From TrEMBL:
Domain Mur ligase N-terminal catalytic per the UniProt entry, residue ranges: 23-98
A GO CC term assigned to this protein in UniProt: cytoplasm
Binding site for ATP: G112, T113, N114, G115, K116, T117, S118
Domain Mur ligase C-terminal: 328-463
PTM annotation (N6-carboxylysine): residues: K221
A GO biological-process term: cell division
The name this protein goes by in its record: UDP-N-acetylmuramoyl-L-alanyl-D-glutamate--2,6-diaminopimelate ligase
Keyword Cell division applies: yes
Positions bound to UDP-N-acetyl-alpha-D-muramoyl-L-alanyl-D-glutamate: S30, T154, T155, S181, Q187, R189
Protein localization: Cytoplasm
UniProt superkingdom: Bacteria
């Protein structure tokens, strides 16, 4: 595609060199530049892409997009284009380069602190059951119908998203469901995408390391709704204090869902058990396979979005009742002697509290009138929001009978230092029931050794993840497999 066609309708500050140059690929990474590439220099959190312009040219870049023209740009071997905001421009360029794939599918984005993967995956599974070919962009994985493509981010960079949307279209997909992280909004990873709908789940404490303040974090989430077109719907959870804030400046059609108050889509939880949720949704009674009141919200938003996309409410509920949750979300691993293991991706204070409250609600005294004990194994990620560490430890103590603090992707931090910060949140009265075991496998083994039949072990924070990241080295680690092994070992020891 010629550079001048690629720049169609994109605001420019200045250009230098020929705009008739042929561009065969786009990249923001100098390491991926080859002949024909357009290199877009983006300022990041660690590096500044502008410092790699020379490298990109040396590697054969056909043209450069940047925020500052280098001295001598006019005489340079390649054309330069100066723009106000490279990251945003990259989204517009990607949309032009790939012929606006997001306009040719129904693209629905999901944002919120918790529940994005759950809602996006439920929508993907529901719409496939409704008979559509669908795409999914999520933390767990990207999917084009049955084809699984590993995901590196919750929301990919905007070039990758446009590439994936193009592949989805080639495969005949009509609907695509994607997570929109707050990082992605701020870093313009959704720039130039045309959404048919946006969903807000909730907003609670997370990522303050990146956003600085809670207000900035709210603004980031709201930024997604601010850029929805008038043709889209904006569906928000009005039981969340910030639900309506999301809709303040959107051009989209405003729609709401609630378990507590008047809303476009109303639900009520009739029963919540280890086997599923019984709900009234718009006055129809349904059983779902998901567990926990927080999932009642997820299901209600999925129902609302499906109806807003034009599906029949009764068909939606019938098919949604059979849909299973994504991996690592309240996933059960039960031992032969009936110890219940639950692996859950709760890695925020709110998620951890929700999951533990759910566990408290659904546990029942056994025949001997003994209430099952709750044993929680939890850690907090390194190089991520440190403020949540003591809070999560306190929540674990408040809702559990035993707590084992352990590691969860220490990344480049010292695991012992992360654990010290968690320990600071343990109330003195709970010190006796809490133990710190840095090695996650040992921590899970200890939990199993403490458990009696019917007790519930919550292993929180990693969910579907299959690695532990220490010093940038990812070693195999899967909570579900480690828990299964621990059960087997302990059963053998008892024989
Ligand atoms: C903090 C953060 O979000 N970082 C993301 C960001 O990287 P960055 O700003 O640090 O980039 P940088 O290293 O400073 O480089 C700046 C520019 O120079 C370029 N460069 C760099 C080196 C070089 O040799 N040549 C070169 O051209 C880079 O390609 C980039 O364009 O932009 C990169 C490209 O899109 C992302 O891969 C990277 O994600 C990192 C790996 C990350 O861990 N991100 C997490 C925090 C994240 O985004 N998480 C959210 C989910 C959060 C949630 O809701 O739970 C997500 O959407 O996944
Ligand atoms: N609607 C909800 N409200 C509160 N907590 C939830 C909700 N849905 C899920 N959770 C909890 O949050 C955890 C993560 O859920 P999910 O993966 O769907 O969220 P996410 O927003 O995609 O997370 P991430 O930001 O890592 O992508 C779940 O394992 C569960 O503990
Ligand atoms: N999307 C979240 C996932 C956190 C999962 C937890 N296991 C961790 O590694 O901190 C993040 O990148 O902050
Ligand atoms: Mg997710």
């Amino acid at each position: 595609m010629l550079l001048k066609d690629l720049l169609y309708k994109i605001p420019l500050l200045a250009t230098a060199g020929s705009m008739d140059t042929d561009i065969t690929s786009l990249t923001m990474d100098s390491r991926k530049v080859g002949p024909g590439s357009l290199f877009i220099a983006v300022r990041g959190t660690v590096a500044d892409g502008h410092t790699f312009i020379d490298t990109a040219v040396a590697q054969g870049a056909a043209a450069i997009v940047c925020e500052e023209l280098p001295a001598g740009a006019n005489a340079a071997a390649v054309p330069f284009v100066q723009v106000q905001d490279s990251a945003r421009t990259m989204g517009l360029l990607a949309a032009n380069f790939y012929s606006q794939p997001s306009k040719r599918v129904k693209l629905v984005g999901v944002t919120g602190t918790n529940g994005k993967t759950s809602v996006a995956t439920l929508l993907f599974r529901l719409f496939r059951n409704l008979g559509y070919r669908c795409g999914l962009l999520s933390t767990v994985q990207n999917q084009i119908d049955d084809q699984v493509i590993p995901a590196t981010h919750t929301t990919p960079d905007v070039i990758t998203t446009n590439q994936l949307l193009t592949q989805m279209l080639e495969h005949g997909c009509t609907h695509v469901f994607m997570e929109v992280s707050s990082h992605a909004v701020v870093q313009e990873r959704i720039a130039g995408l045309t959404f048919a709908g946006g969903i807000f789940t909730n907003i609670t404490h997370d990522h303050l390391d990146f956003h600085g303040t809670f207000d900035n974090y709210i603004r980031a989430k709201k930024g997604f709704f601010d850029q929805l077109p008038a043709s889209a719907f904006a569906l928000t959870n009005v039981d969340d204090k910030r639900g309506l804030v999301m809709l303040q400046n959107t051009a989209a059609r405003k729609e709401t869902y609630s378990l507590q108050t008047l809303a476009t889509f109303k639900g009520k939880v009739l029963a919540d058990s280890l086997f599923g949720l019984n709900m009234l949704v718009d006055d129809r009674e349904v059983w779902f396979k998901l567990i926990g009141r927080f999932n009642a919200y997820n299901l209600l938003s999925v129902y609302g979005a499906a109806v807003l996309l034009g599906e029949d409410p009764a068909d939606v509920l019938t098919l949604l009742s059979g849909v299973t949750p994504p991996p690592g979300r309240f996933e059960q691993v039960v031992s032969d002697d009936r110890i219940v293991g639950i692996v859950d991706y709760a890695h925020t204070p709110d998620a951890l509290q929700n999951v533990l409250e759910t566990i408290q609600d659904i546990r029942h005294a056994d025949e001997q009138d003994r209430l099952p004990q709750i044993i929680t194994v939890v850690g907090c990620g390194g190089n991520r929001d440190a403020a949540k560490r003591p809070i999560m430890a306190e929540i674990a103590c408040r809702f559990s009978d035993r707590v084992i603090l352990t590691s969860d992707n220490p990344r480049f931090e010292d695991p012992a230092a992360i654990l010290e910060q968690m320990q600071a949140g343990v109330p003195p009265v709970d010190a006796k029931k809490t133990v710190t075991i840095e090695d996650r496998r040992d921590a899970i083994n200890r939990a199993v050794s403490l458990a009696k039949p019917h007790d519930i072990i919550l292993v929180a924070g990693k969910g579907h993840e299959t690695y532990q990241d220490l010093q940038g080295v990812k070693s195999d680690f899967d909570d579900r497999a480690v828990l299964r092994d621990a059960f087997l070992k302990s059963e053998r020891a008892k024989e």
